[in-house]
Amino acid sequence: MNIYDFKVRDAKGEMVDLSDYKGKVLLVVNTATRCGLTPQYAGLEALYTKFKDQGFEILGFPCNQFNEQAPESAEEIVTFCSLNYGVTFRQFAKIEVNGEQEHPLYTWLKSQKTGAMGDDIEWNFAKFLIDKNGNVADRFFATQPPEELEAAIRAQL
């Protein structure tokens, strides 16, 4: 099993087969608009701009599980991110990343690499780096700034 076995909804509600990303390096991030870490959107966009022409994609999944820090609709989240941080990377429908209602994608991601709290996602902006074969290459703490991921991304590209 790898990331290409999953289907997710994008911010417009369209079903997306993650096999569409075969051969690309991916950064999967659970995001939020009202979090102390929300400014990480700027760093994520900078990474995306720097590496997108080399086969790099960021998949942003808003998550309202942590103190309800992403209460807006998917459309409002996309607008917020575009206006405030210039985000152009793909954003998806809001999901849960822990617990009984967690999305199967996150069940799989967490099973591949443990983090600060074992399997559970510790907070918004936890990051998973996916290699070109669809496998989890690394997991980064929510508090780790996107700028610090540059070397790991380069190594996968």
Outline the secondary-structure elements:
Layout: E1 7-9, E2 15-17, E3 25-31, H1 40-51, E4 56-62, H2 74-85, E5 90-91, H3 104-112, E6 127-130, E7 136-140, H4 150-156
Parallel strand pairs: 3-4, 4-5
Antiparallel strand pairs: 1-2, 3-6, 6-7
Note down, in words, how this protein is organized.
By secondary structure, the protein is α/β, with parallel strands linked by helices. The chain has a single domain, classed as Glutaredoxin, CATH 3.40.30.10. The protein contains 4 helices and 7 strands; from the N terminus they run E-E-E-H-E-H-E-H-E-E-H. The strands form 2 sheets. A 5-stranded mixed beta sheet has the order 5-4-3-6-7. It has a two-stranded antiparallel sheet with strand order 1-2. The mean pLDDT is 95.
Short description:
The chain has 157 residues and is of the alpha/beta class. The protein has helices spanning 40-51, 74-85, 104-112, 150-156; strands at residues 7-9, 15-17, 25-31, 56-62, 90-91, 127-130, 136-140.
